[in-house]
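_Backbone structure tokens_
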Amino acid sequence: MGGDYVIAARGGAGRGAADGEAGRMAVAAAAAVGPVASCLAQRDAHTCVPEHTAGAPVPASCLPGPAPAASRALPPAVQGGLHGQEDCCASRAGAHMALPAAQLPAAVAGMCPLQPGLAAGTPQHREHAGCDPGADGPAPHPRDGGWYTASLQHALRVLDMTGLLDDGVEQDPGTMSMWDCTAAVARTCIAQQQGGTVEPGQAPLPVEVRVDLRVNRASYAFLREALRSSVGSPLRLCCRDLRAEDLPMRNTVALLQLLDAGCLRRVDLRFNNLGLRGLSVIIPHVARFQHLASLRLHYVHGDSRQPSVDGEDNFRYFLAQMGRFTCLRELSMGSSLLSGRLDQLLSTLQSPLESLELAFCALLPEDLRFLAQSPHAVHLKKLDLSGNDLSGNQLEPFQGLLQAAAATLLHLELTECQLADTQLLSTLPVLTRCASLRYLGLYGNPLSMAGLKELLRDSVVQAELRTVVHPFPVDCYEGLPWPPPASVLLEASINEEKFARVEAELHQLLLASGRAHVLWTTDIYGRLAADYFSL
């Protein structure tokens, strides 16, 4: 019986959900040519899957071997991370995985890893695996309609380590972050290439290691070496999401050239200060990824309003390259000044967007009118207009945009949009038509307690609403200038006693309307905003 199998190490939600040995896991993947099995571990759900189920990997509950430890430190070979500020992170335990590497060679031992002492094929193991506990002997082959355990003739082909969390204030200290995973996998790939030996006639089948990679200036050289080492190596890195922060243009291009065009679904460039010239250099290298679904360009400082000839040429070239994407569904252009030119950008795209982030883009009324009438509006699930002034001439076209997107919109971010009570109240009739809305962000707007209460009462018709991030009411400030600049709302001190009364009153209103499950909060750092791929 031969076969190809998958190990999936998905991001989970709790400490102890898995072992943190990403490096050992990757090493074992390279060595596991025969005695390996497969598992699917996602959010602690372990159920057996028939082999004949199309595309379904075999679950961890069918894999022989001892039970995974609740937590274990990363091995010395992968400790230390890739750069100084991450050293403390790389030694943390608890990647969201169901299978430590030590179990892979033990696949022939005949033990279920989730239930110590349950021998594979016994009634107890069969019952744990969802099989008939009354049947005798080992599980029959799937061709006979049954289940199976691993054999020496099965070869691991895919190790999926995507979906690990970013570092953040809400992250469990016992879990592995994307920084840690990048460090562990990179070190392992380099070590495997430099120190690996293969006996004649024993060349292993390559293992595709699927990862999300995060890189900055300090880790760039190491990650580039890992990507180079993976070419022709038993461990072949396949990057799903690339996030590069504060990386020079030439380094960004060098990494993009090393990535597999068939794997990448997201490119996320942050704080790179590229400008239009830098974007025009990088974008053709991004456009070769024909399956790219998400392009996020944060704080690249691209100003399309540049009057120079070079600036205009760079912008036209950037637009032409954007037209090459066929699968793009999410576009984020935060802090790229697009005043009066949004129509040029969006008209080049081949397919409607489902997520559009235009924070601090200095949008004009004509930009919002175009978006409302474009094919994108009726497909939008996520819209971020933070930092754009919606209080004046932009208010009416913004309301028209909400009307156009009402049927599909799930996530609306309007932080620092200068929306006072008057603008909010005039927007409520169309806002409450967004029946599927789950998240509403209003932080940094000059709203009073009266305005918030009106929003809370009117939003009772939005049955799917789960989170509202609201500002501190202007009633809670002392000596506030009017209209208050966003910087004042973000930095000025509030009267804690007044705000405590506001919170209590909002909570009572939620309880009285039967919506205790809806979170009203001023916490903008609570990782409440949904990622596009999770919508």
Residues 11-21, 32-152 have pLDDT under 50 and may be disordered. The first strand starts at residue 3 and ends at 9. The chain is about 30% helix and 15% strand. The two ends are 40 Å apart (CA to CA).
